[in-house]
Structures are given as C-alpha cells and as structure tokens.
Amino acid sequence: MPWRPFSHAGTALGVLATDGVVIAAEKKVTSPLLETDRSHEKLYILNNNLVCGVAGLTADANILVNSARQYAQSYLMTYGSDVPVESLVKRISDSKQAYTQYGGLRPFGVSILYAGYDRQHGFQLYHSDPSGNYGGWKATCVGANTSSAQSVLKQEYSEDLSLDAAIGLALKVLTKTMDTATPSSDTVEIAVMKIVDGKITPHVYSTQEVKDLLALHKEALDSAKADS
C-alpha cells in the first residue's frame, strides 16, 4: 500500500482566471478556541508574487514553505526582482525529489498548489506532488475527493473566467466535495493573487471575508449541494 497522506487531506484546489488566481481549501481543524484569522491551516503567502495551498502533513509543508520563502528572498536580494514562479516551483520540487532517492529518508508527504505572477508569463498555477513532479494547470485540485473535484472543474472551467467567477467556481467545487453538510467560514480558506492599483497583491481572506463570500454565492452553493 503506497504511503499517500496527501490523498486523505482536505481538498485544496486552484483556478486560473484572466485577472488573477484563486486557491481554496477545506480546513479540517476546527475549534471555537482557534484564532482562525491567525491560524491558516492550508494556505501560505510565500512572497509578494506567490501564494500556495497544501494537502498532506502540515509539519512537512512548513519545512517546504520556509525553504520557498528563503529562496524567494535570496533571489530578491541577488537580482532585485521577485522570483519567477516556475523557478521557485522547480527549486522546491527538486528538494522533494531528492528525498525519494536515499535510504533512511522518507518523502515529504505533501502536495502543493502554487499561485503566482511574473512579468514573463503573467498569472500562473502549478501543482507539485510528493515525488517532486510538477506541472502548470488552468484548474486542478489535490487532497481528498480529487476525482469528483476534477470532474466538476472539467465541466465548468472556461479560459475567460474572471477572478470573481473563479472564486465562485472554487467554492462550488468545495461544496460538492467537502465532508461537512454546508461550507462555512470555519471550514473554508481562500487566497488569491490579483492586481490592486497596478500592483501584484497576494491576499489570504479573513474569516469575515470568507463569510461574506459564502453569503454572496449562497444561492449557487445551495444548488450545487442539492445536485451532489
């Protein structure tokens, strides 16, 4: 039996839009004692031009996220510009792949979705798995219920989606794949890469912002849940 902790983790998915990228994730750890606006389980800001979502072992993800942040800052100090998205993805994927080659080491048990922007290729979405393999996507997901999520994305994704529409699609997919009856601000995390006043801006939504988004898309989400 292969060791695949990322396949049982809460679903995380990314959708590429014409004016940004969204990553949405199902949060498994919920408690009334948790400070949700300061304790994001699945989403991380890596740099001014990169955010990521993870599925798998959080401790492993923290190690890779720290490596990504260090590489991004080293690139910025050396070249005076933000790191190209694929350059960072390749760097972290190479580290993951190295841990599959030697006895006494275990692979990192985490799949990662990267959402970023650079001047050469614009907005981009990448997925890397524990083996170190990676690729660019228009829309994809990792974690539990991947096949169901991919089916919905294949049917409803289009290349002319706006960021607002991409957020709506991401929430709809989560609604169909989550274990809970209805999505809430306690069980959903959302991050975006977008342009604000001409500047590339990463943003992880607060609990209240997620609640407002769910209210905005409530009718569509209720319909999606009824169809699932």
What does this structure look like?
Its EC number is 3.4.25.1. Keywords: Hydrolase, Proteasome. This protein has 6 helices and 10 strands. It has helices at residues 58-79, 85-98, 146-156, 163-177, 207-216, 218-227, and strands at 12-17, 20-26, 43-47, 50-56, 110-118, 122-128, 134-136, 139-142, 188-196, 199-204. A 5-stranded antiparallel sheet has the order 8-1-2-9-10, covered by helices on one side. A 5-stranded antiparallel sheet has the order 3-4-5-6-7, covered by helices on one side. A hairpin with a 5-residue loop joins strand 6 (122-128) and strand 7 (134-136). Helix 4 runs parallel beside helix 6 (218-227). The longest helix is centred in the N-terminal third of the chain and has 22 residues, at 58-79.
Describe the strand arrangement of the main beta sheet, using strand numbers.
Answer: 8-1-2-9-10
Parts with pLDDT < 50 across at least 5 consecutive residues: none
Q: What fraction of the residues are assigned to beta strands by DSSP?
A: 25-35%
**Can you count the helices?**
6
Cα distance, first to last residue? 30 Å
Fraction of residues in helices? 25-40%
**Structural Rg:** 17 Å
Query: So what's the oligomer here?
Result: single chain
What string, H for helix and E for strand, traces the elements in order? EEEEHHEEEEHHEEHH
Largest sheet: 5 strands, antiparallel
**Which structural class matches the secondary elements?**
alpha+beta
Residue-averaged pLDDT, rounded?
88
Specify the overall morphology: globular
Number of strands: 10
Protein name: Proteasome subunit alpha type-3
Enzyme class: hydrolase
Keywords: Hydrolase, Proteasome
EC number: 3.4.25.1
